[in-house]
Amino acid sequence: MLRTPDADASAGRPGPDDGGGAGESLAADLRRLVGRLNTSGTRAWLELHGERGGLPADLTVHTYRIVQEALTNVVKHAPPDAVIHVRVDTGSQGPGRLVRVGVQNSAGAGAAAAHPAPLVSLGHGLTGMRERTALYGGSVDAGPTPGGGYRVAATLRPTEPKPTTVTP
To answer: Among 88, 57, 56, which residue's Cα sits nearest to residue 152?
Structure first.
């Protein structure tokens, strides 16, 4: 079970589909999310790849939440001058489609002084990301980068609709 009840998740949840499809809505929601970081003085980059159509609406919500949680961790733990790179690849429609999420921050100039040892989180961020990806047969990998930053990589596997059997 996910830790954030739907009723509490609505503030900051991706908006309803405006006719452009769930994938298009995801792209717009991610642009707004990363844009808010840039207005607060943080340098963040968003890179979107893949086909946007054909994604289940609930998968787009889980994808958004994974990016949101990863960015929350960056803002909490990275030095103020860290640069953040968000990459979401929604893949190509068809069997074997994967949605890949990557959020990585640079170490920043103040990283060594601010964080001399790896951070240990007592929150539910990574657990929630793992639960969300598990719903779609995916996984999360997170940890420090060789350059002193931190990265989160998640993969989700959209499920194909099962054919309905009609019995005469």
So the answer is: 88
In angstroms, the CA 145 to CA 126 distance is 16
For 44-79, the pLDDT digits (tens) are: 999 999 998 888 889 999 999 999 999 988 777 788
Quick one: pLDDT at residue 32? 93
Kindly report the pTM of this predicted structure. 0.75
C-alpha distances in angstroms, 62 versus 4, 68, 76, 93? 11, 10, 21, 18
Q: Give the single-character DSSP code of 17.
A: P
What are the two backbone dihedrals, phi and then psi, of residue 37, each rounded to the nearest 5 degrees? -65, -40
List the structure tokens of 58.
């609930």
Q: Which amino acid is at 53?
A: G
What pLDDT, on a 0 to 100 scale, did the predictor assign at position 99? 95
CB 137 within 8 A of CB 158: no
**3-class secondary structure, 49:** strand
Pairwise CA distance, residues 132 & 152, whole Å: 14
Radius of gyration from C-alpha coordinates of the chain: 17
